[in-house]
Design a protein that fits this description.
Layout (H helix, E strand, L loop, with lengths): L2 H13 L7 E4 L18 E4 L3 E4 L22 E7 L2 H9 L5 E4 L3 E3 L4 E2 L14 H7 L2 E5 L3 E2 L2 E2 L1 E2 L14 E3 L3 E6 L3 E7 L5 H6 L5 E9 L3
Parallel strand pairs: 1-2, 1-5, 5-8, 6-11, 8-12, 14-15
Antiparallel strand pairs: 2-3, 3-4, 6-7, 9-10, 12-13, 13-14
C-alpha cells in the first residue's frame, strides 16, 4: 500500500465509527480526511476548540475569510446551524462531556491506552494545546494512525515520550487492523485488513496484542 492508500484506508474505517448527529472533534492531519468518507445518511457536527460547532469544508480559493478559521489557523466554512462562542465556552463543552467523539493522531500509544501525541524529539513544540482536554472530556477517543513510523512500532508496551493523557484511548485504527483498548484485557484486534497477516501485525507491534475469537475482515 502506498501512502495515499494507507491514509484513505484508515479514514474510511474511522468514518464507520461515527453516527448521525455526533459532535466530533478532529485532530490535525489524517483525522481531517474522515468526513470525506461518511455514509450519505450520516451527518456530524464538527467542533473546534477555538470556539465553533458546525465546521464545514475548506473554502474555495479566493473565498477565504479571516473570520472563519479552525483551531490550527486553517480557513473553514460554517454549515447551516453552526454556532460560534468564546474559547472558555468551547472548553466547557469539551470538559462537560458534550463532545461524542475525538479523532486524533498519535506518535505513541501503549497497552494501557496511554497516548503521546504532542512533542517530537529534537523539534520545537508550542505545547499540547487542547488535546489533553479532548482525551479526558470526550466520550469516545479514536486514534487514526499509521501502524508504524517507517517500520518503527508506534504501538508500544509503554510510551516513551511525554504523555498527553493516561488510559483514555478507546479504539486504535491503522492500515493493518482495528484494535480495541479493553480494560483488564489489553489490546484486542477485532478486525484485520486482508492485505496483512496476523504475523505481520505482531511483527509491527511492540505491545502485546490479542486477536479476538470472532476476528473479522477490516470493514471499509
Amino acid at each position: 500500500m502506498d501512502k495515499n492508500e494507507i491514509r484513505e484506508t484508515i479514514a474510511r474505517r474511522v468514518a464507520l465509527e461515527l453516527k448521525d448527529g455526533d459532535v466530533v472533534n478532529l485532530g490535525i492531519g489524517l483525522p481531517t480526511m474522515v468526513p470525506n468518507y461518511l455514509k450519505a445518511d450520516v451527518e456530524v457536527m464538527l467542533q473546534s476548540e477555538n470556539g465553533m460547532i458546525g465546521m464545514g469544508p475548506a473554502p474555495k480559493e479566493g473565498e477565504e475569510s479571516a473570520e472563519w478559521t479552525n483551531a490550527g489557523g486553517g480557513f473553514i466554512t460554517p454549515v447551516p446551524g453552526a454556532a460560534t462562542f468564546d474559547s472558555a465556552t468551547s472548553f466547557g463543552i469539551i470538559r462537560g462531556g458534550h463532545v461524542d467523539v475525538s479523532i486524533l493522531g498519535a506518535l505513541e500509544v501503549d497497552e494501557n491506552g496511554d497516548l503521546a501525541n504532542w512533542i517530537i524529539p529534537g523539534k520545537k513544540a508550542p505545547g499540547m494545546g487542547g488535546a489533553m482536554d479532548l482525551l479526558v472530556g470526550t466520550r469516545k477517543v479514536i486514534l487514526a494512525m499509521e501502524h508504524t513510523a517507517k517500520g518503527t512500532p508506534k504501538i508500544l508496551k509503554k510510551c516513551r515520550l511525554p504523555l498527553t493523557a493516561q488510559g483514555q484511548v478507546d479504539l486504535i485504527i491503522t492500515e493493518m487492523c482495528v484494535i480495541e483498548v479493553r480494560k483488564g484485557e489489553g489490546l484486542v484486534v477485532t478486525e484485520l485488513n486482508e492485505h496483512f497477516t496476523r504475523e505481520e501485525v505482531i511483527a509491527a507491534t511492540e505491545a502485546s496484542i490479542i486477536f479476538a475469537e470472532d476476528l473479522r475482515p477490516m470493514r471499509q
